[in-house]
Structures are given as C-alpha cells and as structure tokens.
Amino acid sequence: MADDVRTWILTGSPENYTATAGRDFTVIGLKERNRNRALEIEPGDRIVLYLTKIMRFAAAITVTGEMYEDREKIWPGKPGKAAPYPWRFATEPELVLEEDQFVPAEELKDDLEHVAKWPPEHWTLAFQGQIRTVSEHDAELLMARLRAAAGVPA
C-alpha cells in the first residue's frame, strides 16, 4: 500500500450500514461537524466500516473520488436527529462480509494500537465519534481479520 494511502474507521449504526449497502457501497457520507476530517480523506484511502450496537466490523471500502457536498437523504441517522451526512465520497467495495461473518471488535481490542489509548475496561470509547484514521499496523490487522472472516486468502 502506498505511504500516502490511509485507512480510516467509520463508525455507523447498523441502519446506516444497511442504507450504504443498499447503494452497493458506492457512496459514503460524513456528518456536518466532520468537514475538516473529511477534507483529509483522499481517493485511494480505505474506510473500514464499524457498526454500533453490535460492535462489529462489516466491510472495507475504497474512496474513488474527491469530497463533494450533497444533502440528499440517504442514511436514517438517529431517530429525531437525522443528519444529512453532507460531506460525501464516491466509493467502491473492497471487501464486504456477510452478516454472520462480521468481525467482533472485542476480538481485536487487545491487538489494535488505536484501542490502547483507552483504559481496557473502556475500550469501546475507541469507536466513539464518526471517523478516525488508524496506524498501518491496525490497518493490516483489520484487513487480515476481515479477509479471514470472508475466507479470502491473505
């Protein structure tokens, strides 16, 4: 992977994931308040999708276009707090798991550098907030586990 390509973890609800899957993983959007973070995302970057509530990793997608603004409603968001997720990117699926293959975050929490920033009993805080970059170590670990779950050779 090129040095300038980054891996991000996008935290979203299972409902938002279903909406993304319904569009064949061809678009992803960030919340209004995450514009500065969105400006850091570039074509070629990878986004690993983490699902709240079930606390599992479900897919990896690749950013294929520059950021654009669009407020068409795609994702349901939180009840009563529907956000337009206006900072959007064209994407394509890299690796999408079936629901019974989703990787439990708890199985990776002791090995991810990103999670080590929090006290062990509060590891779930590592996935609060919508988007964050992870180290090359974490990116490789996440992708290895997703590939293994999918039965794809490393």
Automatic annotation (TrEMBL):
It comes from the Bacteria. Pfam families: EVE. Residues 7-143 form the EVE domain. InterPro entries: EVE_domain (IPR002740), PUA-like_sf (IPR015947). This is EVE domain-containing protein. It comes from Svornostia abyssi. The lineage of its organism: Bacteria, Bacillati, Actinomycetota, Thermoleophilia, Solirubrobacterales.
